[in-house]
Amino acid sequence: MFRAAPRVILASALLLLLQVPNGCLCYQYKVGDLDCWGLPPSSNRLLYHYWSRNHSFRVGDSLLFLYPPSQDSVVQVTARAFNTCVVATPLLRLNDGNSLFNLTSPGYYFFTSGVAGHCAKNQKLAVAVPSADGTFPPPPADEGVVADAPPPGAYQSFPIVFGPTPTPGSSVSAALSPMSAGSGVVAAAASAFFLLGAAFV
Questions:
Q1: Which of 122, 127, 132, 182 pairs with 78 at a CA distance of 20 to 30 A?
Q2: How far does CA 138 lie from the centroid of its chain?
Q3: Residue 86: which region, alpha, beta or left (left: phi > 0; alpha: psi -120 to 50)?
Q4: Which DSSP helix (H) or strand (E) runs through 192?
């Protein structure tokens, strides 16, 4: 019986690892994916607009802004400041070059560069985070639409930096979503059954 103990422990550990509840898995998103936080190139001036549209955010996720701290910063602003690019009084200022912002509640989050003139050149990001039931709160009264936005698909986007690339027609959220509880239980049960069966042979 003592010979089976390590396998039983291994099977139990595997069972625990495979049972990730749907609501507990969070992601850290590097803003811009392949691009660091900075002025978008003239060939893709709405880089951050489309980056945000290609990701599904949830409460508990976080945004990682990478940039040279001597050249840029990130400020969280109101919807009005986001749309007018008047960012003199931000809600939050991050300037360490490796800035992590946690999405702690449902709602709309607005970010731009703290460098003068960068907001007007579209170095800004709006993120929408739904409630646990998947519904979005009403948008802020002064939230506007991005002006002169080209149609979706006009620019190539890279929704996933590390991991499989979704096939055309599949959704990014499906590629990023955690394993469903049902499939996790089935996989864990099958693995545990196999390992326990092998322990007693």
A1: 132
A2: 21
A3: beta
A4: helix 181-199
Question: Would you state the structure tokens that stand for residue 193, as one six-digit string?
Answer: 């059954």
Q: Are strands 107-113 and 92-94 parallel, antiparallel or unpaired?
A: unpaired
Per-residue pLDDT of the chain (201 residues; tens, 9 = 90+): 445 566 666 666 555 555 555 545 789 999 988 778 999 999 999 999 999 999 999 999 999 999 999 999 999 999 999 999 999 999 999 999 999 999 999 999 999 999 999 999 999 999 999 998 988 888 776 655 444 333 444 334 444 444 444 444 444 443 343 433 444 444 444 444 444 454 445
Tokens of 116: 């003068």
- C-alpha distances (whole Å) from 75 to each of 38, 46, 50, 80, 85 are 13, 18, 19, 14, 11
- β-sheet bridge partners, residue 93: 75
Residue (of 82, 54, 77, 45) closest to 172 by Cα position: 54
- What one-character DSSP code corresponds to residue 100? E
